[in-house]
Structure formats: C-alpha cells, structure tokens
Amino acid sequence: MRLAYYPGCTMKTDAKNFDESTYSAAEALGIELLEPTRWNCCGTVHALAKDNVMNYLAPIRNLIRVEQMNEAELVDDKRVVTQCAMCYNTLKRANADAKADPDKMGKIRDFMEKEPNYQGSVNVVHMLELIKGLGWEEVKSKVVKPLDGLKVSPYYGCLLLRPREYGIDDPDHPTVMEDLFEALGAEVVDNPYKAKCCGAYHAVHLKEVAADLSYRILRQAQEAGADIIVTACPLCQFNLGDRQNEIKKHQREFEGIPVVYYTQLMALAFGKEGTGFEQNIPDPVPVLEEKGLL
Amino acid sequence: MGENESEMVTIHVMGKKHEVPADLTIMKAMEYAGHQFRRGAGCRGGYCGACAAMYRVKGSYKLEGALACQKIVEDGMYIAQIPFSPAEKITYDLSELKPDANTFLEYYPEISRCLSCNTCTKACPQDIEVMDYVQASLRGDVEGAARLSFDCIGCGLCAVRCPAEIVPYNVGQLARRLNSRYVIGPTEHVLKRVGEVEAGEFDADIDELKRSDRKTLQKRYESREVKL
Fold first, then answer.
1. Who among A40, A54, A114 is closest to B135 (CB)?
2. In this structure, are A85 and A162 located in the same domain?
3. How confident is the model at residue B46 (pLDDT cuts 50, 70, 90)?
C-alpha cells in the first residue's frame, strides 16, 4: 500500500525520532509512505479562526498537493496520512470546514488564483487510524520481539481526540493505543489523565504551568506502575519528556520516567532499525534493556 | 523607433501621464519620458535585480511586480519603481553557524509568521517558488531552500508583498551560504586553484597585465577566447 504522508515541520526537526520510527513501523506493516515533493506548514491551529480565510491557505494547499500526487498516480488513493497531532487536527478540520462551506471554498480558490483548485477529495487520516484499519491480528503477525513484561501507559493529549467530531477515538475513553500495545505484547497500564492537557504552548511562556500539568500525568502513570509512557504528539512528548528536568526543579522527589513515541516501540517490536531512541529525553534505553528488549 | 501615434501607449509614472512607444520596457519608457536613473537600474539584462517595479494595468485590481528592464509597457499601466526594499542587514559569521532550522529562526525569526499564502511566489519576477523555500528553511531543509532559491536576484518584490513582513531573499541567501559551506562543502577544483594562486603561479601573468598599456590590453581583450 502506497500512501501520501504529510510529515509537518516538527517531524523534520525536534521529532526526527517520531518521523524515523514512523517509516520503520510503516515499512514493517507493508505501508509505503510518500511525502509530497513540496509541502508547507500545516497551518497549526491558526485554522481554528474560522472567519479568516487566509489561515486556510496553508492546510488546503497541502491537500491540493495530495490531490496532485493522486492524479500523477504516485499513491494508491486520496488519503493523506498524518502523524503529528497538530498537523492531523489542523488538516482534518480545515478539510472538513472547506468541504462543508462552498462560500469559504470559493474564497480560498479566489485567493489562490493561479494555483490549482482544491477539489475537496482528500481524506485526512491519522497513522493510528490506518493501523487500526489493518486489524490487530495483522499487527500481531508482524511482531518479532513482543514487548513482554513492559508496562506501557498510553497518553493521548488533546488534539487527537478533540473536538469530538474530528477525533480519532472516543475523547472520554480512547482505546486505540491500548489495543495497539496489547497487540504488541505489552502490559497496558491505564492512566486516568491520558486525555488531560499536557500544558501545550504554556511550555514557552509559562513553563511552570506546563511542568505542573505534565507532572500530574507522569505521576499518575508511575502510580499505576508504568515503566514507560507512549505519546503520539511532538508537543506532548516535549512537555512530558524533555521537560522532566524542569519538573524535577519543582518536584524534588520525582525520579523521572521514560516517554517515547508509540511508533518507536512499534519499530522495536517489529525488529526494525530506526527506532530513534537516542533522541529521547530521558533516555529510555536502560528500562528497555532491563526488560530484555534491547 | 518610430513616433507613429498608432505605436504609442499611455502610461502613468508615479501618477504622471506619459505617451511612450508601445514596444519599450518600463525602464526605457521611463527614460523616454525624461527620467534619469541614479538608482533602480543595473545590468539592464534581467540579471542583477536592481530595477524592481510595481504596476497596475487599467481595469485590473491586481498589483503586479516586474523587473523594469524586462517588462514591456502596456496601455494604461500605473508604474512605481521600488529601487530598494527596506530590510535589516544581518551580519553573521558563517563559520559559527549550524545548518539547521534554528539558525534561520535565530536570524530571521519572522519566518515563523509565514501564513503560506504564496503571495511572495506570485510577486517573484524569476518564477521562484519563494514560499516553498521559506517553508523549507523553517524545517531546516537547507539543501531544499538553497536549491529552490537559487535563481533569486534579490530584487526585493517578495519582501515588499509579504503580509508577514518576512524578507525572503535574505533567508534564501542564508540558505545558499549554509548549503555551500556545510552541505556541499568546499569543492576540489576551487581549493586547487586557490592553492595555485597562493603559490604565486599567476603572479608573472598579473604583473605583465599591470605593465601593459591600454592598446595592448584592448587588443588582448578583443582577441580573447569567448565560449558561449
């Protein structure tokens, strides 16, 4: 299966380990991901301002390029796979808004002028939806190194689940990552804070707010006995992982817990190179070695 | 150039109306109308980027950009020259930079304001995918930004049009410098030639040229080997 893949800027900078492990995991599942030769910013949540057509240009242009890839028969269908939760949410919502509102679509076309028109034919999907669609038995069949004895606590954050109509799963009781990690042979640990806010962009201006919110999530996972937390969003990964040194300044008894992207553990379970663990903070390797997985 | 009325068109230069021959470029038409260029004219061949101009054509809302030495006038054109686009000249030591996204963001943080509206691309007289190279810079794709911006002549029209107030041509120049130094790296033939120059292999030839009189220099110039 060959599909268009929209990476987004973070996957090429701070989340290279997410990007790399995405390709590793996809390859094991027989999915070939193909980036558009040219792509621009997803638009981030600017597109939430529904009355400003300018903010729709970025996401819609990316969808136009997916249509072009499809016309050139470079990919199998008109789906575009996303991985970064921000990119997923923005592309998904911009796509739905533009399709639902002919007036808005008209304004977008008027502004873009000589650029090709968006036909509204693209379907934005998240990698987790794609994997779920393959079936958990299929995923299980690719596992060469089951994550035996590893207690994994999935964390979803906000942008994958909300608003409800665009979420990849039930925003109150998401299970897709739980199902995935059961298929990979891990022991899934529930965290009641798995869909609570990590602090998001407060990481920039109000570090202590993000540190406090992230700490609660990490604590809950630890109290539930987790060895490791998995995320599906570069910003969550940053707040929960990279920011643990900041958290330790406020919470002196906190000892830290590894946080990795879900695809990194998939790549590991599928026996693939390109897990990207060297980029993670804190280092997940000691825990994975202790469990005999590395 | 005939003065035949049927070959004349009306243009407005900075709001003043002129009748000019229809087959002139904006630059020549302005000179025909009495303007003298002290700035805003360079190679007159479309290579140097000094002669950016903006115009509207009668009946169209569109604000267009062009190189004055390349664009032929149209009847009813309203023309203004943009001899310089105000932009801060940032200085940096290339040897201390890293070829990544943070370097672009450190020196040109306004690139994070890019809306992907593509107005810069539409303004470019070189048909460069300007927005795409700004976006490539944002994600640290130095090679891509350098490649996409390669034909930039720094006319400044993209910077004048950008609603996010980015100065794309400076970003492209930084990309090409980073690409040359860190991605491509020094090339063998240049290093070899620099070595030859430093070893004094051409000193005798240069001295001979310096001692030559004008007539000899002219003769040598005219009989030089020209490769087209």
1. A40
2. no
3. very high
Which architecture characterizes domain B5-81 according to CATH?
A: Roll (3.10)
Token pair for B179: 């690409």
Judge: B116–A113 Cβ closer than 8 Å, yes or no: no
Query: Would you say the pTM of this structure is higher than 0.80?
Result: yes
- Averaged pLDDT score across all residues of chain B: 94
CATH code of the domain containing A150: 3.40.50.11810
Shared domain for A151 and A193, answered yes or no, is yes
ipTM: 0.85
Angle between helices A57-71 and A85-100 (to 10 degrees): 90
Sorting pLDDT into bands at 50, 70 and 90, what band is B4?
low
- Taking an 8 Å cut-off on Cβ atoms, the answer to whether B117 and A54 are in contact is yes
Give the span between the Cα atoms of A215 and B163, in whole angstroms: 40
The per-residue pLDDT for A50 is 75
**Cβ-contact A270, A189 below 8 angstroms:** no
Answer yes or no: do A156 and A188 share one domain: yes
Do A155 and A66 belong together in one domain?
A: no
In a domain, A50, yes or no: yes
A29 with A269: CB under 8 angstroms? Answer: no
Radius of gyration of chain A (CA): 19
What beta strand segments (E) does chain B contain?
8-13, 16-21, 52-57, 64-67, 77-81
Q: How far is A283 from chain B (nearest CA, A)?
A: 23
Q: Inform me whether the pLDDT recorded for A186 exceeds 70.
A: yes
**CATH number assigned to the domain comprising residue A70:** 1.20.1050.140
* CATH architecture, domain B94-184: Orthogonal Bundle (1.10)
Which residue from A38, A41, A55 is facing B138, i.e. has the nearest CB?
A41
Quick: pLDDT tens for B102-157.
999 999 999 999 999 999 999 999 999 999 999 999 999 999 999 999 999 999 99
Cβ <8 Å between A13 and B100: yes
